[in-house]
Design goal:
Distance between the termini: 53 Å
Shape: flat
Helix content: over 70%
CATH topology of the largest domain: Rna Polymerase Sigma Factor, Chain: A
């Protein structure tokens, strides 16, 4: 994707807009899903983001250098606003009346939150045991959603080496998570 694609889109070029959308959608979805585990909310926010970009294109900065970062920031703000509005709506309307199927006691919510925090902590410990390169490959593959080929080009390694690093990292994470789970159960 050329550096000028953003400028062309801001000037009204529909093909450039489509190129931006197609080139960034998957990474935006992965990033958005990491912020909100609600797939539909994430998809909706990405769609709205691109609609807003198209509508506001005449007033947008045409010299954006890091388009990906710009889009990530915009999406993060959009998801944050939507989650805030959603939580206000749910609580102002009375969650018991609108969503009786998802009523949870305070204790159940605390337990779920605590379990989630424990899993995050376990994963943090497991990630600390990876090598720098394994950690970088995991980040590029699963958080930036790059292909093995793209990671290889970015890190000056062969695709096979990247595949092996990812495989070993995932295997190590699985083993670490199992061991931590066994220790907790004992």
């Amino acid at each position: 994707m050329s550096v000028n694609t953003w400028g062309l889109m801001a000037g009204g070029d529909r093909d450039a807009f489509l190129t931006l959308y197609q080139g960034h959608y998957q990474a935006l979805f992965s990033y958005g899903f990491s912020l909100s585990s609600n797939r539909e909310l994430t998809k909706d926010c990405i769609q709205e983001l691109f609609l807003e970009i198209w509508k506001k294109r005449p007033s947008l900065n045409k010299d954006v250098k890091n388009v990906r970062s710009y889009l990530f920031t915009w999406l993060r703000r959009k998801i944050s606003r939507e989650l805030s509005l959603l939580s206000k709506h749910v609580f102002s309307e009375g969650i018991e009346e609108e969503f009786p199927a998802i009523q949870s006691s305070y204790e159940e919510l605390l337990i779920a939150f605590q379990q989630s925090e424990e899993k995050k902590e376990q994963l943090g410990f497991a990630l600390k045991k990876l090598t720098k390169m394994q950690l970088e490959v995991i980040r590029l593959k699963f958080y930036e959603n790059l292909s093995y080929q793209a990671i290889a080009e970015q890190t000056s390694r062969t695709p096979r080496t990247i595949y092996n690093l990812a495989y070993e990292a995932i295997r190590h994470l699985r083993e670490s998570m199992k061991l931590l789970l066994i220790q907790i159960m004992i």
